[in-house]
Amino acid sequence: MKNLVFLTGAGISAESGIKTFRDANGLWEGHDIMEVASFEGFQNNPEIVLDFYNKRRKQLQEIEPNQAHFIIADLQKDFKVTVITQNVDDLHERAGSKKIIHLHGELLKARSVENADLIYDWKDDILIGTTNRENHQLRPHIVWFGEAVSEIENAIKVIEKADIVVIIGTSLQVYPAAGLIDYALNVKHFFYIDRNPVESGYFNKPIKVIAKKASTGMRDLQQILNEL
Fold it and tell me: In this model, does residue 201 exceed pLDDT 80?
């Protein structure tokens, strides 16, 4: 089986109804990004940060995967599929994908502010005073700005072995995720699915662009892959 790697971003989950955090004015739900997506912001006003992610967590549990997620999972029948995602939702998992690397953390997990290795499945609100058995305050298991992307090395190992890479719903302009395609040295086929794609030359690779929304683009891609 060929190794098929998906690099996914906000665009694939938008059809499920997940809001993209960043508004046209650059704010996240009315907040400055660093206010709700940095450890400094958490230290300065933890109530605001926890409330922000509590709302996101609640919304996530009210929506469902869309056709794009399900098609990716279905391709596991014919390919060795790995999803490397910048998304913090669990929609790939719920659609049936088995091998997923979350670069930026997971909204349905919490972790200790004292020990980043103490991670817990978490569906409820996190409040000031929500602690683990070690009496550590819990925080969202999200990679905030300035924090290490611990899964990047695993992602590099996967993409180094890829035969086919599909970029979907992301312009890959945020590092270190943006640097992953530099490691795709053995890839025979590149695809890029996005309703509003950036110039394909940005990726510095020969790439087939499918300028459609995620679900429609994935239907087209599935047919293309069946003919390879």
Answer: no
To the query of whether residue 69 is one of the catalytic residues in this protein, the response is no
Stretch 36-53: mean pLDDT: 94
For the chain, domain boundaries: 1-18+66-104+149-228, 20-62+109-142
Query: With bands split at pLDDT 50, 70 and 90, how would you rate the model's confidence at 175?
Result: confident
Q: Six-digit token pair at 117?
A: 């290795």
Give the up-direction half-sphere exposure of residue 46: CA atoms within 13 A in the CB hemisphere: 11
- Model confidence at 28, pLDDT cuts 50, 70, 90, reads low
Given the residues 69, 92, 104, 141, the one annotated as active site: 104
CATH topology of domain 1-18+66-104+149-228: Rossmann fold (3.40.50)
Superfamily grouping for domain 20-62+109-142: SIR2/SIRT2 'Small Domain' (3.30.1600.10)
Give the model's confidence band at 27: pLDDT under 50 very low, under 70 low, under 90 confident, else very high: very low
Integer Cα distance of 134 and 114 in angstroms = 10
